Amino acid sequence: MTKTSQELALMAESGRLLAAVFALLDRTTLVGRSTLAINDMVERFITDDLAARPASKGQYGFAFVLNSSINEVVCHGIPSARDVLKEGDIVNFDITLEKNGYLVDSSKTYCVGAVNTAAKRLVEATYDAMWQGIRAVRPGARLGDIGFAIERHAKRCGYAVVRDYCGHGIGREMHEAPQVMHFGKPNTGLVLREGMVFTIEPMLNRGKRHVRTEDDGWTVVTEDGSLSAQFEHTVAVTAKGVKVLTLRADEKR
After folding, report:
1. Helices and strands of the chain, counted as H and E runs
2. What sign for the dihedral angle of Cα 184, 230, 19, 14?
3. pLDDT at 252 over 80
């Protein structure tokens, strides 16, 4: 589960490239665009501009380079020409990129134009919950510390943490050990060691935590129809604490 310094350097380069993909999305006008058009734009940017591979395409039979999850969609939303983003939506784009044989994974929930206060608060709380989990990472800490920090923040804000999906180790493969739950008890679970690399990717619901998968076999939605948001970074355990490999230029955490 641990990576060498050389492997970490390669993953940091993959992370830098993936951060550039989100910088592209940051400067893209989302209102009026279909999620399929955004998928195609991202694919061209990754392959042509970054000379990298969009690692989600073909993974487990998935045909696209990103997941696009709108409003009550929790995760694994499928890009479609019919899904045109409109003012007031929130949408999560989840993207995995591979360069030089190493993968990184990140996601961000965007507010499309002007959104209502309830949606904005959910998005902000989810982002902060992810960072609460990241700040718990250091050698000698335990996986339960990460989940506890995330769930504590979510509950304080009045939101529910989805328990059906979790973070994961990542490197040469998309999903490696360990599994990283977004709920838990402090001082429980696997002890973190320098060189471990994994994702932290909490999903928070405005309503209850329960979800269901739609008939397409991919799209996961909140069972009660409430809004859901997600953020994700790939992180490495360092001698002094944690390094966010997919950190974006606008983030100063």
Report:
1. 4, 15
2. positive
3. no
Per-residue pLDDT band for 226 (boundaries 50, 70, 90) equals very high
CB-based contacts of 29, cutoff 8 Å, min separation 6? none
Give the whole-angstrom CA distance, residue 182 versus residue 146: 7
Q: How far is CA 16 from CA 77, 184, 245, in A?
A: 25, 30, 7
| 116-156 pLDDT per residue, tens | 999 999 999 999 999 999 999 999 999 999 999 999 999 99
CB burial string 112-129: b at 16+ within 10 A, e below: beebeeebebbbebbbbb
d(C-alpha 65, C-alpha 150), whole Å: 28
Please name which of 166, 252, 16, 201 lies closest in space to residue 93, comparing C-alpha atoms: 201
Residue 102's beta-bridge partner residues?
Answer: 99
CB 197 within 8 A of CB 51: no
Q: Helices 143-157 and 117-135 meet at what angle, rounded to 10?
A: 160
Q: What's the rounded Cα separation, in Å, for the pair 194 and 242?
A: 9
Q: Please give the pLDDT value at position 250.
A: 87
Q: What is the mean pLDDT of residues 190-211?
A: 98
